[in-house]
């Protein structure tokens, strides 16, 4: 995808296009991790849901990647997690994968965090997301220990940092 055909837009977290892309991500993650959740106690599932929640007051930026026609291709959130800056909810629609959308969104998050004074950007992922893991490694994220709020409910998470 040529750079002039891809545009990054900063939108409100409740933008309907952003919400629709997060819905696509949720469905994809539900499918990928379905077997891992079998037999889980409802209270534990609720704790995990709370750990994954992104509250609007934490959001520094919600970004959409759109094509020349304005069609949403991808989404990401940069949030403050205590003193940390975290990349959350990165999704690229299937038809736009391997076209630089994820790289462009990730680069914009890193740039925003750098301009905001962050020391690093962190993120949490999992083994059932190999495409994401390849992207993070390719753009310079390196593995770190699982961090809060994921330690108790997702101790086998794969977490990364990008030092600024």
From TrEMBL:
<dbReference type="InterPro" id="IPR016181">
    <property type="entry name" value="Acyl_CoA_acyltransferase"/>
</dbReference>
<feature type="domain" description="N-acetyltransferase">
    <location>
        <begin position="19"/>
        <end position="164"/>
    </location>
</feature>
<dbReference type="InterPro" id="IPR050832">
    <property type="entry name" value="Bact_Acetyltransf"/>
</dbReference>
<protein>
    <submittedName>
        <fullName>GNAT superfamily N-acetyltransferase</fullName>
    </submittedName>
</protein>
<dbReference type="GO" id="GO:0016747">
    <property type="term" value="F:acyltransferase activity, transferring groups other than amino-acyl groups"/>
</dbReference>
<keyword id="KW-0012">Acyltransferase</keyword>
<dbReference type="InterPro" id="IPR000182">
    <property type="entry name" value="GNAT_dom"/>
</dbReference>
<dbReference type="Pfam" id="PF00583">
    <property type="entry name" value="Acetyltransf_1"/>
</dbReference>
<keyword id="KW-0808">Transferase</keyword>
């Amino acid at each position: 995808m040529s750079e002039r055909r891809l545009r990054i837009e900063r939108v409100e977290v409740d933008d309907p296009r952003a919400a629709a892309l997060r819905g696509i991500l949720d469905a994809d993650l539900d499918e990928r991790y379905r077997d891992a959740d079998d037999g889980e106690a409802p209270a534990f599932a609720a704790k995990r849901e709370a750990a994954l929640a992104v509250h609007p007051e934490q959001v520094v930026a919600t970004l959409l990647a759109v094509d020349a026609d304005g069609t949403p291709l991808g989404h990401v959130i940069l949030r403050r997690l205590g003193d940390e800056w975290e990349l959350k909810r990165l999704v690229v629609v299937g038809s736009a994968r391997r076209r630089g959308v994820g790289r462009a969104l990730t680069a914009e998050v890193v740039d925003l965090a750098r301009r905001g004074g962050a020391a690093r950007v962190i993120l949490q992922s999992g083994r059932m997301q190999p495409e994401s893991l390849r992207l993070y490694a390719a753009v310079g994220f390196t593995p770190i220990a699982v961090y809060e709020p994921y330690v108790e409910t997702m101790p086998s998470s794969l977490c990364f940092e990008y030092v600024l």
